[in-house]
Amino acid sequence: MLILRHADVRTVLDGQERLVTDVVRQTYAAHDEGLTALPHSLFLRFPDAPRDRIIGLPAFVGGATPSVGMKWIASFPGNLEAGLERASAAIILNDPATGRPQALIEGSVISARRTAASAALAARLFTAEADTHGAALIGCGVINLEVLRFLRSELPPLREATVYDQDPDRAAAFAARATGLLGLRVTVADTAAEALAAHRLVSLATTAGEPHLDLGPLPTGSTVLHVSLRDLYPAAILAAQNVVDDADHVSRERTSIHLTERETGGREFIDAEIGRVLRDPGSFTRDPARTLVYSPFGLGVLDIALAARVYAEASAKGLGLPVGGFLPGETGRS
């Protein structure tokens, strides 16, 4: 068993935005080809703390280099007030040939970066070249900082950002950090509506559990990366073109897509899945007169595929803590 700590994962992935995006692209294509096994995520909720949850995401990715495992990720928004990260995660990788556990990997970096890579990939697919100079970000946490980093990689013309958070101090700190890390010109908006009106590319990454936004302030033809999934009212979803990562997975757990399905009785408002668009660009036509909303549920196959790449790279570099004798029949010490 190899244990890969947070620092080990960062050593492998820092500065590797293109590698991460390529893994995400290939995995979406494999999923569309039917080369994956992906049960629905398991949500563990707590009766006395409805905002808190721990999610289990088991997954298998086939192909030339198969991978299998499970991500176990906790989201406790109250951690922020205690100076802790909202999300924490661990990933277990299994040997595809024997099923035996082979690695325990700190998962927060993998989770955040595969999420950001998915959003940036969609931005490059669906955003017109003329609209790639700036982005608006609502929610000033770890995820949107990673989204901005990956947008900077996928959209080289990106030069400025407008950000908004319910906590003005958090927004100001985010703006300062993004400016220092990425060299962008970052403006803090006073309201969510002001941020929405600033650019035609928007990323929503909040901790909202219920819809709280409409898209009225958006310029015509905008692209919305609806990473947090529960921000938009059904009316906003119905007015937009909608691309998802997997219609069955995203139509659950009171996401905006799920609420819209319940309201309409069907999924006809979903126009495409991103894996199919990647494999067959002609299968979807972007309407420049309508807003496009991309709602990625966050498929466990992305975590497992990226974790397997991290495991291979870390093993080659001699990173991590090997633990001998972990499984029955093994001998030796770490």
CATH-level-4 superfamily name of the largest domain:
NAD(P)-binding Rossmann-like Domain
Q: At the first level of CATH, what is the class of the largest domain?
A: Alpha Beta
**What's the total helix number?**
11
Low-confidence stretches: none
> What name does CATH use for the topology of the largest domain?
Rossmann fold
Main pleated sheet = 8 strands, mixed
Number of strands: 16
Helix-strand sequence = EHHEEEEEEHEHEHEHEEHEHHEHEHE
Shape: globular
Which CATH architecture of the largest domain? 3-Layer(aba) Sandwich
Helix content: 25-40%
Separation of the first and last Cα atoms:
9 Å
- Mean pLDDT, all residues: 95
Structural class determined from secondary elements:
alpha/beta
Strand content: 15-25%
Computed Rg: 20 Å
> What count of structural domains?
2
Describe the structure.
The chain is an alpha/beta fold and 334 residues long. The protein folds into two domains: 2-110 and 300-322, ornithine cyclodeaminase, domain 1 (2-Layer Sandwich); 119-295, 3-Layer(aba) Sandwich (Rossmann fold). The chain is 36% helix and 24% strand. The protein is built from eleven helices and 16 strands. Helix 2 crosses helix 3. The protein starts with a strand and ends in a 12-residue tail after the last strand.
